[in-house]
Design goal:
β2 and β3 form a beta hairpin. An 8-stranded mixed β-sheet has the order 1-10-9-4-5-6-2-3, with helices on both faces. Strands 7-8 form a two-stranded antiparallel sheet. About 35% of the residues are buried. The longest helix is centred in the first third of the chain and has 22 residues. The protein is globular, with a radius of gyration of 21 Å. The protein has 5 helices and 10 strands, in the order αββββαβαβαββββα. Helix content is about 35%, strand content about 25%. By secondary structure, the chain is α+β, with helices and mostly antiparallel strands. The N terminus is likely disordered.
Length: about 200
């Protein structure tokens, strides 16, 4: 009798394990690395932007005078934009978010022209700027390091951030370097996990 009870108990434990494994939400495959305070910025395409809009976001900081890393990254963002459209995720569930580190020089019309170079679709690719103080505050939330001197960005960290719909950072990626593009397939797979696709 004791053997039957033990066998039943083992069966229940194994069944419970498999139920938890199969029913556990898929986005739990990505850890919560940090949380970012909600923020608002101006979208250069004429709308205000709020991070609490319930969408997954891939966030990259940039400045339009950046000679290499930023434009290379935005070329990869253009491809990610296409991939997300193919998956039916772009704009409705997912946004690409580019935040200027140099609002003094990156005026709305400058960023708008810059965005056009990458065929950015403003429905789901948001180009944001704020005051220098607001920019610094938001960059600090992301632990994005950058240095300005005489109105010029001397350097900035090269991390991109995947936020879930609750403003939690779920993954970090490297921006593009010459010969080392952004990990587009990995990013889109991670986004699909967060959106349940």
């Amino acid at each position: 009798m004791k053997k039957i009870v033990k066998l039943l108990l083992i069966c229940f434990v194994i069944a419970g394990f498999f139920l938890v494994y199969w029913l556990w939400p898929s986005d739990e495959g990505l850890p919560i690395l940090d949380e970012v305070e909600a923020f608002q910025l101006d979208d250069v395409h004429g709308e205000g932007f709020e991070s609490t809009n319930g969408k997954v976001k891939l966030v990259a900081f940039f400045f339009t005078n950046c000679p290499d890393i930023c434009p290379l990254t935005m070329v990869d963002f253009k491809e990610i934009q296409s991939m997300l459209k193919e998956e039916g995720l772009f704009a409705d569930k997912v946004e690409l978010v580019s935040i200027s580190l140099d609002p003094a020089n990156d005026l709305p019309e400058v960023i708008t022209d810059y965005a056009a170079n990458f065929q950015a679709d403003p429905q789901g690719w948001k180009w944001l700027r704020g005051t220098p103080e607001k920019t610094r505050q938001i960059a600090n939330e992301f632990q994005m390091q950058y240095e300005l001197e005489d109105g010029t960005v001397l350097y900035h960290s090269t991390t991109m951030y995947l936020l879930d719909e609750h403003n939690k950072i779920r993954a970090l990626y490297d921006m593009a370097l010459s010969g080392k593009p952004v990990e587009k397939e990995t990013i889109v797979e991670d986004i699909a996990l967060l959106t349940g696709n």
